[in-house]
Amino acid sequence: MKVLLVDDEVELVSAMAERLGFRDVDADWTDNGESALAMADKTAYDVAVLDMKMPRLSGLELMERLAEKHPDMKFIFLSGHGSEADFKAGCAAGCNYLIKPIQLEDLVALIRKVAA
After folding, report:
1. CA-to-CA distance for 26 and 116, rounded, in angstroms?
2. Which residues contact 98 (CB under 8 A, 6 or more apart)?
3. Total-model pTM
4. Beta-carbon neighbour count of residue 54 at 10 Å?
5. What DSSP element (H or E) covers 116?
6. What is d(CA 111, CA 77) in angstroms, rounded to the nearest whole number?
7. Which residues of 2-41 are buried (b: 16+ CB within 10 A; e: fewer)?
8. How would you classify the pairing of strands 2-6 and 74-79?
9. DSSP3 helix / strand / coil % (the chain, rounded to 5)
10. What is the pLDDT of residues 32-86, one digit of tens each?
11. Where does the Response regulatory domain start and stop, copy by copy (predicted)?
């Protein structure tokens, strides 16, 4: 299983990737949507974990662009600015949504669930 993590909080996303690796989840990371699109063109990811609020390209916009090119990719949304509107938008797009701060075990369980 290959996972793409996208979050504009570099320290968070890099630490998350490292810790997922300790749990046998192979994760690459980036801090922006444009880079994520380029990475997905070069590597087949099973799951993308996307920050809902990012500069220039939101998690929802990124999901739409990734899903168009990679229809088998699954998505999980993360948000540190959880709101009812974001939650509903995330649910409408797949209902895989965690509010920061997250528990890594919750993320691992959700990654394994959506990838199954």
Report:
1. 15
2. 76, 77, 78, 79, 106, 107, 110
3. 0.90
4. 19
5. none
6. 11
7. ebbbbbeeeebbeebbeebeeeebebbbbbbbeebbebbe
8. unpaired
9. 45, 20, 30
10. 999 999 999 999 999 999 998 899 998 889 999 999 999 999 999 888 765 656 6
11. 2-115
Local structure of 26: helix, strand or coil? strand
Question: Is-cis flag, bond preceding 71, omega within 30?
Answer: no
Place of tokens 């909080």: 9
The Cα 27–Cα 104 span in angstroms is 13
Residues found in the chain? 116
Helix, coil or strand: residue 11: helix
